[in-house]
Design goal:
Blueprint lengths: L1 E2 L2 H21 L5 E7 L3 H17 L2 E7 L5 H12 L6 E4 L9 H7 L11 H8 L8 H13 L7 E5 L6 H10 L3 E5 L6 H6 L3 E4 L17 E4 L3 E2 L5 E2 L4 H4 L5 E2 L6 H27 L2
Parallel strand pairs: 1-11, 2-3, 2-4, 5-6, 5-7, 7-8, 8-11
Antiparallel strand pairs: 9-10
Helix pairs in contact: 1-10, 2-10, 6-7, 6-10
The chain binds NADPH dihydro-nicotinamide-adenine-dinucleotide phosphate (NDP).
NADPH dihydro-nicotinamide-adenine-dinucleotide phosphate binds next to helix 10.
Length: 288
């Protein structure tokens, strides 16, 4: 069994991105990320702070917009339009969840696809489906990098994804499919989950229920990526997989914390820098 060190891999990515940011600055482009936070959800505040810190670390300009929790949808759409038109902003992220009175779909669709570094715009999701990605969602992209880091060939493997959300389950299933895995997607109505999990050479758990996947369900030699982040009553963070028991069987497993989480932020930086690079090239191409 080997733990997959998400923190170390994320650091490697960020170090490479620092060089890329310096290169872009040398060509007159300073990558900028706008983060829009509506309201005062404490978990969202923590995530937004972590994103700001990562920007600082690699030299990306970070523009934080904290808006009142009762902001009208129309007003928020205007704010997004401002950011769409701001040449210093290459990536726009609206921190989810939004308060109930705001229509998440409308808000996410208002972000220009070429600034949608979260990869949630329908156009970017569609591009992922046809395997012509522009920006891919950060958590599944990070998972693919973690899998690549193991050196294991994904082609032909049985991959089981538990969870079918638009931000994790569905996109990671597509990414694995594009790498020629045979993919099974499970969810809350799946029957015989244990049996399905037991077939997985690669298991992705993205459920949000502490230790729901039992260690003795796991196939010997499997790779387990635990996306779940669950806070227990005593404050401890755990994943969706029973780590101790599972790790007796796995070839590779991600810990929680220190697995998928750090890679998600590294991939957000990766997409932001990529957005800035594309922007820089577009400007050059337009020059007479
Ligand atoms: P969602 O709540 O959107 O989706 C959870 C999925 O789990 C749903 O598809 C649901 O099925 C399925 N599910 C629920 N109960 C069961 C069950 N008993 N058996 C099988 N499937 C079940 O969550 P997210 O995808 O947004 O996130 C999942 C977890 O990953 C959370 O803990 C979240 O905090 C974490 N996360 C971590 C990130 C990171 O960077 N490390 C980033 C994003 C998320 P159904 O569709 O039928 O309801």
């Amino acid at each position: 069994m080997a733990n997959i060190d998400g923190k170390a891999l994320a650091q490697k990515f960020k170090d490479r991105l620092k060089d890329e940011v310096n290169f872009l600055k040398g060509h007159g482009v300073k990558p900028g990320l706008a983060v829009v936070l509506v309201g005062d959800n404490p978990a969202s505040q923590v995530y937004v702070r972590a994103k700001g810190k990562a920007c600082e670390e690699i030299g990306v300009n970070s523009f934080q917009h904290t808006l009142h929790k009762e902001i009208a949808q129309e007003e928020l759409l205007w704010q997004i339009s401002e950011l769409n038109n701001d040449p210093n902003v290459h990536g726009i992220l609206v921190q989810l969840p939004l308060p109930d009175h705001l229509n998440e779909k409308v808000i996410l669709e208002a972000i220009l696809p070429e600034k949608d570094i979260d990869g949630f715009h329908p156009l970017n999701i569609g591009r992922l489906v046809i395997n012509q990605p522009l920006f891919q969602p950060c958590t599944p992209l990070g998972i693919m990098k973690l899998l690549e880091g193991t050196g294991v060939d994904i082609s032909g493997k049985e991959a089981v994804v538990v969870g079918r959300s638009t931000i994790v389950g569905k996109p990671i299933a597509l990414m694995l499919l594009h790498k020629n895995a045979t993919v099974t997607i499970c969810h809350s109505r799946t029957l015989n989950l244990e049996e399905k999990v037991g077939k997985a050479d690669i298991l992705i758990a993205a459920i949000g229920k502490p230790a729901m996947i039992k260690g003795d369900w796991i196939k010997q030699g499997a790779i387990v990526i635990d996306v779940g982040i669950n806070r227990l009553g005593d404050g401890k963070l755990v994943g969706d997989v029973e780590f101790e028991e599972a790790s007796k069987r796995t070839a590779f497993i991600t810990p929680v914390p220190g697995g998928v989480g750090p890679m998600t932020i590294a991939m957000l930086m990766y997409n932001t820098v990529e957005a800035a690079r594309r922007h820089g090239l577009r400007i050059r191409e337009r020059r007479p």
